[in-house]
Hints:
Blueprint: E1 15-17, E2 23-30, E3 36-42, H1 47-50, E4 52-55, E5 57-61, E6 65-72, E7 79-87, E8 90-94, E9 99-100, E10 111-113, H2 126-129, E11 133-136, H3 170-175, H4 177-183, E12 187-190, E13 194-196, E14 204-210, H5 217-229, E15 233-238, H6 248-256, E16 275-276, E17 279-280, H7 299-314, E18 320-323, H8 331-344, E19 349-352, E20 369-370, H9 373-385, H10 390-403, H11 406-409, E21 413-415, H12 424-427, H13 432-443, E22 448-452, H14 480-495, H15 498-501, E23 503-508, E24 515-521, E25 526-532, E26 538-543, E27 548-551, E28 557-559, E29 564-569, E30 574-579
Parallel strand pairs: 11-12, 11-22, 12-15, 15-18, 18-19, 19-20, 21-22
Antiparallel strand pairs: 1-2, 2-6, 3-4, 3-7, 5-6, 7-8, 7-10, 8-9, 13-14, 16-17, 23-24, 24-25, 25-30, 26-29, 27-28, 27-30
Amino acid sequence: MLLEAIYHRPKQNWCYAYDERTIHIRIRTKRDDIDSIQAMTGDKYAWEQTLTYIPMTIMSSDELFDYWECEVIPPHRRLKYGFILQKGKEKLWMTEYTFLNEPPENPDRLFDFPYINQVDVFTTPEWVKDAVFYQIFPERFANGDASLDPKGTLPWGGKPERENFFGGDLQGVIDHIDHLSNLGINAIYFTPLFTATTNHKYDTEDYLQIDPQFGDAELLKKLVSICHERGIRVLLDAVFNHSGRTFAPFVDVQKNGEQSRYKDWFHVNKFPITVENGIPTYETFAFEPLMPKLNTENPEVKAYLLKVAEYWIKDIGIDGWRLDVANEVDHQFWREFRQVVKKTKPDAYILGEIWHESSNWLQGDQFDAVMNYPFTNATLDFFVEGSTDAEGFSHAIGKQLARYPQQANEVTFNLLDSHDTARLITLCKDDQRKMKLATTFMLTFSGTPCIYYGDEVGITGGQDPDCRKCMEWDPKKQDQELFKFYQELIKLRLDHRALRTGKFTFLASEAGQTTLAYAREDDQEKFVILMNNDSKAQSIKIDIEDTQFMDVHSSKTYAFKNGSLNVKLLPYESIILKAIR
């Protein structure tokens, strides 16, 4: 055994309370190095009477490591535990202090989970596990009230530029709510709606007002009510890392400089504030002078933003927040933010925009989830770019699953494109077969999927601003076959819990191969998904215990012979099989 590769800590994603009774334990070992692991568990005050050995299984793997996991329900919410590792005839006992060749004489030096305190359990909103999100860029979705159009609004459908407007508004969303219901969407994520000078609205001027271009608070309240009647939740975008240059306190700083009562609302390095050699003399988002960074450690700033967080949930009825540039805001602010939001609406969804590993924000005291860009990158690398093989893809996904507690993985926000990226179909060079493969994986994978507006009808677009085209509402110009594909796949996900919260397991993901197979399974159902990410037809063979499956689309049945199944797949084809039990 390579002992240097073995890792465990009694905290974070390695040992945590999944609920008020259950503890999940994980340990990392070198890939293919250990034959079996058992968790040796018991109560520290009654060790001999409660000693139990629990087999661990490999939950996921990457190119270097296997990640083992087991579930424990301690009799008294306390847990002492260690590990028994076996490779061939070699057997070791792992304690918190060292490795032993014999069982430890007592539990004193084992790992300790002191007690499952209910207040410490990381809980996430149940509804998010069943959600299929739809991202709306409000300025480009639909123009429902031309009287609100800003000066210089262009005819709908023109070329998007960084500074032009087409008049999208909240009434337009209301007018087309049937489109979302027909698609099967049950959650909407809006990019910012608050008063701002730009078309994207990430330069907030007033956090307590809807931009007049979109409507007002009463219209948003009406929209939220209509959505709730249809079982659709609503998530708003909050830009608390920075404001806009027209934000009243920053206007005061620009006017009064060091004498401004708001000077400590921001991070000013030198007065008077200006831009020197392309860099502002005050902290900003990405050196952008229009977006001064807020000082969220300032008590007045904190009180103002927390009031904002509460108001839109309490008075308007929204269901949660997506938090822009979340990793540049201090952790203490987010802890207090969570307390305010969860007190106002306990099942509100708190989603952070973080593009990288995010464990520090997913310990139960800050966010429920983050935007899962590591998932995005892995999926695009395999299905779209072809820069990795099936094994590399499974490694990337396996590594990501091992990073976070299960309750965070269950509600992590999975996306394939957005207002910040080129559109999926354009990345696929207009090859819908690749697009459908990637989308099928997202909609049959763990976590919460999100569809960017217009993908379902074939809207194309390169990098910003091209990815922010006007939604196409002419049925003759919409790809109706693509819409049907999304519609059927969303319905399949919503009809079967196993595809939402069931266990995920790779069944075939070999080095050098472009074929892939994986299973989704719970105590009621089992699905096996087969994929051929290649321009040539290929066969895929999997070993599995079940004897018969049915194709969910064609109803064709597949019988396993001698515990294995061999299926021929057309170029870029996927087949979703459901076990017949």
